[in-house]
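Treating backbone geometry as a discrete language has practical consequences that deserve illustration. Part of our work consisted of pairing the sequence of a single chain with a tokenised description of its backbone. What the numbers capture is local backbone geometry rather than side-chain detail. For completeness, the protein is quoted in full, as a sequence line and a line of structure tokens:
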Amino acid sequence: MKPIWCIGGAVWDRKLRLLAPAVAGSSNPVRESGNPGGVARNVAHNLCLLGLPAALLTAWGDDGAGRQLQQHCAALGMQLDAVICVAGAATGSYTAVIGSDGSLQLGLAQLDALAQLGPEQLRDSLPVRRQASLQLADLNLRRDSLEAWLAEPRDGLAVLLGVSEPKMAALPEDLGRLDLLIANAGEWQAAGGNTELARRGLRRALVTQGEQGVRCGQWQDGRWQWQLLKAPALQTVVDATGAGDAFTAGVLAALALGHVELGQAAAFGQRLSHLCLQSLHSVSPDIHPELLIELENPDAPR
């Protein structure tokens, strides 16, 4: 299989987990941890754990954090030939404040190096990327970079992933060449919702809604047609960080393996997201290649 390309953020994650409900304007006790992160990188990490080939296109700094990211990604088997090392720029970082219930209270992102990944840098990797069966870009990228990416010649599918409500402002005006948008409910509304996104040319979407499940949408006969997939039962959320990235990796894996029915791809995404929600890590170590058997036989014992 040709690599699945993941284009966008790769950062060093710092998690601060509150040990009790937060008290505003006061010092709050936390437990701290740090790991490689970033939306596109997390998706590629999940794909590697599934045993699928993944290539990463991102930018990090020529600093200690960048070198750590490079070593970690290389050890997973990611293809890194297209990664840009930006001299004098700080490698991206993301600080998450996690509530005692596992929910994200506050996220703070610094993406100085990634801001250097423009249309010119994308062109350098085009000869190898255009042959991919799948390319994913996240909305950490600049708008002009996303516009250039969508305009590129390519043989496979183009999937775009939302990362936050404010960053939906980078969504290109023309989405006619986009095969699939994955966003949460807040990001979907921040981008204008059903009517606006259809006007821009979007025809397929997955909208995640947490405990309410996932809406699978296709624009047909002048309107959106939605299918709702209920969320798997989950008693406790350990940590919600990275659940959307795991979901996206599951969707990409299903599409790459030929399962083009959107509901089936979303169901496998939910399976991976469910594992992530039960882990302290942004990428669950319980993800492994044998999970792909469930794509062929969804009713197999788990």
